[in-house]
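User: Show me sequence and structure for the first protein, then do the same for the second.

Assistant: Starting with the first protein.
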Amino acid sequence: MKQIYFVTGTDTDAGKTLVASGLLHKANDMGLRTIGLKPVAAGCEETAEGLRNADALQLQQTASVKLGYDQVNPVALVEPIAPHIAAQRENRRLSADRLVAFCRGALMQPADFVLIEGAGGWRVPLNPSETLARVPQQLQIPVIMVVGMKLGCISHALLTAEAISRDGLTLAGWVANVMDPDMPVLQENIDTIRAALRAPLLGTVPHLDSATAAEAAAHLDLQLLGLSKK
């Protein structure tokens, strides 16, 4: 049965793409068919093939089910700023309905494990009345939260988890992504968040110089999501 998760972060640059790619890589090694989607990406470069976002490309390259770039990242925005502002500056309007429709189209592909990566944190606006949280709400899928381990991460993690619950969704698991290799009392911070959340800790990804999907995968446990090898 296809398992679909929305990947959010406690902040921008929390490590969503690294963790999502690591989870996809882990699932690939388990013999599962995987898909990674980035429905909206702000911060794209012009190429001969069109606008391309580095995070979306990483998800596309890591997933075992090979989709076209436009399926992985249907809304590509040039400037690396809040998506709704980037869209406004391009005279475009974002909507949850449109992003959900794009996702549902890609989800028609046969797969066992699908990750839909958000942009920034949980409450990133799409337009004056909607945030990106409306996408997993409409799809009614559980959430994996990436916690960027740095000063302030405990409050960020608990507030994000609280918002996910308030929006009627399940926090399926969370990942501690170590951003600062010299972060003081790192383990105490992880233990505090772990004690406060009911969702399982899927792994702690250490600070990685090369930060590849394969290296991140070595620190993640998909069995905690109920996945097993084929």
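Switching to the second protein now.
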Amino acid sequence: MTGSEKMLARKADGIGWVTFNNPERHNAVSMEMWEALERIMADFTADPEVRVVVLTGAGGRAFVSGADISKFESERSGEAAVAAYQAQTARAYDSVSDCPKPTIAMIQGHCIGGGTALAVCCDMRICGETASFGVPAAKLGLGYPLHGLRKLVDLVGPSFAKEIFFTAKKWSSEDARVMGLVNRVVPNDQLEAFVTDYAKTIAGNAPLTVGSAKFIIGQALKNRGEADEATCDAMVKACFASEDYVEGRRAFMEKRPPQFKGR
């Protein structure tokens, strides 16, 4: 499914796991890895058994450390190559941010440049206590498009977004928590167990409710008059008309865990 040994994918207990598997380069991402991510996310999005997606990095030293600079000469050296690379990375980022299912970035170690951009595309970010974050674009002469910067501004606000980009410095997990860049900071040795339990909790909830909440919250970020209110209303009505709504009420009355089917 991945088409690249540097990208791993597996499914278990309603969770789709995506692992960036380039630990010798701190999980720096090449063009083939961005292409593989797009394929993996398409598969997870289409699979009704996958209810939540977790993205992480192999090796324990990094989530994703950004683009693989060793590939710049072959992948980003000319105007056409830069345009092709940017188009592919945009599709890969969109495959995560546009996924209708909840997405979680499980972050241990370095989360730099494109890694931070990828984490921001996820719905939630949970990191180990020694994780570090940064966008060194100003030290490399790179430009970031409006689409990507808007996600960061929506998350941390304009002042912190400027601080992150203007300084190009690394930030600690506590800095990231204060900024609102991450949802939770947990001890390194508890990170995987914590995220797995978190993801299982989400996967056990009603998929139509969770999916509608994700979509409607996204619409709530838009200016008044730009939100797709008709689709929001339709998704809410679909929840109340679903078999899962019946199951949820019955499970509550019978004092048992509900068994939701997403319909």
